[in-house]
Amino acid sequence: MSQHSQSRDEGADDVVQSVNADGVDEVAVESNRRLYGGWQWWLFGTLAIVYSLFHLVSLNLYPLETWSFRILHIAGALILGYGFYAGTQFAETPQARSSAWLRWLSYAMLIPALYALVRVAMMYQTMNDGAMRIAPEIEAWHFGYPLLLATVAGIVLSWSYRQVRDGLSPADAVLMVCSLAVAGYLLVMFNSQLRASTGTPFAPMGISYAAIAGSLLILELTRRVAGLALVVISTIFLVYVFVGPHLPGFLGYPGLSVGRFFSQVYTDAGILGPTTAVSSTYIILFIIFAAFLQASKVGDYFVNFAFAAAGRARGGPAKVSIFASGLMGMINGTSAGNVVSTGSLTIPLMKKVGYPPRSAGAIEAAASTGGQIMPPIMGAGAFIMAEITGIPYTEIAIAALIPAILYFASVYFMVDFEAARKGMRGMRKDEIPRFSKLVKQVYLFAPIIILIAALFMGYSVIRAGTLATASAAVVSWVSPNKMGIRAILRALQLAGTMSIQIIAVCACAGLIVGVIALTGVGARFSSLLLGLAGVSQLLALVFAMCISILLGMGMPTTAAYAVAASVVAPGLIDIGIQPLVAHFFVFYFAVVSAITPPVALASYAAAGISGDNAMGTSMASFKIGLAAFIVPFMFFYSPAMLMEGSWLQILRVGVTATLGIVLLSATVQAWFFGPVKAWQRLVMLIGALCMIYGGIYTDIIGLMIGVGLYAMQRTRNGASTATPS
């Protein structure tokens, strides 16, 4: 968490006058993030700006050949990533740096790394002179072995080499050179006729050397920016490639040699496949869009608007958290990042009006996770869904509307009923921003409105995103935070650094996707689901849910969905489920894995701010987001929830499912216009499930139960328990 956020957290109890969000748009500074000064700040800042501009120019003006563009996309993220993120803890003082021999050993590894890079330049010249391929001994002894030596040694040395926070470790300089060498070699070979030989015995072994080094570089950067979870899962899949032929049953497969596998995994069958395709186009573009919004302080406005709209309702800060996290989550690609940006303000305020630390953290975690399914932007996973399924992005955004309403309705009524049960107050009028003042700046919503309008007018996602980005700069000119040249360059720099994590995660997920595609394990999983569906389709769906959550634990949404979509979604389609329904089913559970114990990233981030136990917070957030674990099953039983059907069907299902969510929230919180007894909770649960199910007869039964309980509660408790505020 950033120092700014920490100070705001510590000083929250002193807030007595109007709460004005300030600093929501700031990016949290990770504990292993370098903070440069002087010429290094200028160098890496310029590299980040160039990286963002490279994508804007390539996507809009001068498109590159697809594989070349994706190779440069990953290489740039690796270079920036190793420049900004350290492999171990920082030394507190210059005297606490690692010993001189480690430093000189790290510098020594620059020799093989630079030698491999020079050899790439020589190979390029050789191929330009008309050579059909490079001699195998040159590829091995003069490129492959030096590159692998420098890569492995650089990674291992970076784990133990401690440098001050404002200095670059020489071990990381080695890894940056290795990243250049990998990209250079692949650009040379994939722009020749040898590209067609990948995955065959005729592929140059140099491609495999480059792919092995590239995979190691991606795994190490992923560890630095996203933790060990995705790295461990990727390693298990890689081990399976070579252990799989010896496994019994459906896990066994004929086997692949090292050369055959690695010559193909760094192509569009794996690392350069769908996940990188999306990160290099839609995701990077919307990260730039988000950076421009942050530079113009739109995030602060979103949160202040939420305070003005919902702050005075009972349990006000909790409801502010729901609205603010939904708005911020649309443009934020990670649930945990959303928690840090909005939760550092809302969690202390929730505690101030009476929420226990656990409830405060859980509400923020559940609301921030819901931001990933909030149309029209939906974090980043929706772009991958569009890429994998071929379904237009606009259709996916429309289909997500009712599920998003159900999710946020669930969280809202969970919060409202808890506030009513505990007698919590809202915030006073003098504690929140004045709505009349904020309405005068409503034009700050213009970039998002322009984005939505452009998408539904038929513009491509890239064109719509570019227009929205430009409009964010233009709109800022009539706001208090005008964007001049310096602010625009700052936004581009911010976008370059913000993109590192998501690009590393997508490349790492591509590694897993490559293993699944090349070994055929996905097809065998599909046959397993088919077998289960022969017994019970519900059993097959429950099994698919468990696998999706398990694969997504500890991973950002994008990677969680990409992996689950490769393993689980094809099996669901094979048992007769429509592609849109199957992918939304998987997507939902990949998203809610962020609040599913025992590994719940969003809940852990919220617990760090609230000061409560991480496991307790994850259990509480699981309870608050309970609807998200039920609604996906209804996609299968009632496709109208995804806008599949007539308008009358869609309207009926949407209304009754929302009422069912209200009953479900009342069941969990034991409050429905007053306290309820145990038998009433059981009846409410039956009524909730009947209405969420979506059938005409079950809807009628659920409505009768809801009306009966409402009349009973109003008669018993009188009009003193007003409708939810």
From TrEMBL:
Subcellular location: Cell inner membrane
Domain TRAP C4-dicarboxylate transport system permease DctM subunit, residue spans: 214-643
Keywords: Cell inner membrane, Cell membrane, Membrane, Transmembrane, Transmembrane helix, Transport
Alphabetized Pfam families for the sequence: DctM
Mode of membrane association: Multi-pass membrane protein
GO CC terms in record: plasma membrane
TM segment ranges: 41-61, 67-88, 100-122, 142-161, 173-190, 202-221, 228-251, 271-293, 396-415, 442-462, 500-521, 528-553, 559-577, 584-607, 619-638, 650-672, 684-711
InterPro entries: DctM, TRAP_DctM-Dct_fused
Molecular function, one GO term: transmembrane transporter activity
Function text: Part of the tripartite ATP-independent periplasmic (TRAP) transport system.
The name this protein goes by in its record: TRAP transporter fused permease subunit
Species annotation: Chromohalobacter moromii
